Structures are given as C-alpha cells and as structure tokens.
Amino acid sequence: MELLDALRAWSAQGGYVAAHTNVRMVESAPRLSAEIRKIVQARQQRLDRSYAGALVASFWAAFPWLAAVDLHMFVERNGTVRFQPTTAVPLAGAHLPDDVRTLQGTFNSAAAVGEIAYWWGEQDLYQALAEDGDACDMSLALRRTDVAPLLGAPEIDGLAVLETLEKAGRIDLAGSEPTYALAQGVGHA
After folding, report:
1. Closest CA to 56 of 124, 113, 135
2. Which of 141, 40, 136 is nearest to 89 (CA)?
3. How far apart are CA 177 and CA 85, in angstroms?
4. Is the separation of the CB atoms in 143 and 169 below 8 Å?
5. 81 pairs with which residues across the strands?
6. I want to staple 54 with a disulfide (CB 3.0 to 4.6 A). Which of 15, 61, 106, 158 is the partner?
7. Cα distance between residue 187 and residue 12, in whole Å
8. DSSP-assigned letter for residue 147
9. Which phi and psi (to 5°) does residue 75 adopt?
10. Are 84 and 180 in contact (CB under 8 A)?
11. Neighbours of 11 (CB within 10 A)
12. Strand 22-25 to strand 81-90: parallel, antiparallel, or no bridges (unpaired)?
C-alpha cells in the first residue's frame, strides 16, 4: 500500500510545472521519486530472494538422491558466472541414478559434482542473490535436512526456504572482491 500511496501523492501533485516558458520540478517531486524508487527496490529484492529460495527448492526436487552439496559461485573477468560444487553427499538409502554411480555401483562424487554444476549453470541464482549487481563470491552449504519440513508441500514458498538457509548460516556472500577463474584454474586475480 505504501507504493500506491506514494504514487497517488505523485500523481495528485504532478511532478513538473510550467511558469510561462520555464519548466521546473515541484519541490516535493524529488522526495516522492526517491520514496517510490526505495519502495520498488525493496519489493524487487524480496522477489529476488523468494526466487532464489524457489530455485533451491527446485534443486532438491531435481536431485532427490542428494543429501548435501557445497556450492561456490564466482564471476569471471568477462562477467560469466561460474558454479563450482565442491562437495556432494548422497542421501542414505536413496536410489542413485546410473550417471552418478561407478561401475561397481558406488557413489561417483565427481560425476555428481558435474551434474550439479551443469544444473546450477542453467539457473540464475547468482543474480537473484547478488546485491545491486555487485560481483562477489558466494558460497552455499545446502543441506536437505535444513529445508526438509518445507519440501513436502505442493508449492514451496521460496522466501521461507531462503530465510531457513540464512538462519542456518548456509549462505555466505564473501563481499565485493570477486575471485576470478584464471587460465590455470581458480584463484584470486
């Protein structure tokens, strides 16, 4: 409602006036414009956070055999976002798909990490979590047990998922200094 109130105030007052050949902004217009921008940014951030949480819920649906994954996200110098899973742990007793099993039928962590990296590479989680478009490293320690109570619903509230992860300390925005992928591997620029 605060956005509607601000827009009503803006439209009731107008933003500009003309005095003969001189056009100027009314005194309250910059304040109203800033207020509207602040409200819209807050609402967009809430939507982005909800989207990020919904992506995490979708991830668990896509990988029902997975119990945990540690994921690192970073931006390359050319602006490409890279997802680097570092740990994947299968869910005890879950049926493993063929593409993440060794010939002996055991869990193939490297193959699982590849599958997970590919899945996340198709998503835009980084953009949903990055604040004001800043390039920064991010780490997520995703544990199915953290959000398990939420996963059984037909529709899962993305904001609830993200808030649960934050309360569990599972999201780390490393700051504004990005780690860049170098030709020899991953390291600091």
Report:
1. 124
2. 141
3. 20
4. no
5. 75
6. 158
7. 55
8. H
9. -110, 130
10. no
11. 10
12. unpaired
Hey, what are 51's tokens? Answer: 């989207």
Q: What is the pLDDT of residues 141-152, one digit of tens each?
A: 999 999 999 998
Rg (CA), the chain: 23
Decide: 40 and 3 in contact? Cβ < 8 Å.
Answer: yes
115: left (phi over 0), alpha (psi -120 to 50) or beta: alpha
Residue-wise pLDDT for 7-47, tens only, equals 666 566 667 778 888 888 777 777 777 888 888 888 888 89
Residue 13 φ then ψ, to 5°: -95, -25
Structure tokens at 129: 């979590």
**Rounded to whole angstroms, how far apart are CA atoms 169 and 166?**
5
Phi, psi of 94 (to 5 degrees): -80, 150
pLDDT in tens, 104-141: 989 999 999 999 988 888 778 887 887 665 667 888 89
Instruction: Match 């105030």 to its residue by tokens.
Output: 9
Neighbouring CB atoms inside 10 A of 143's CB total 16
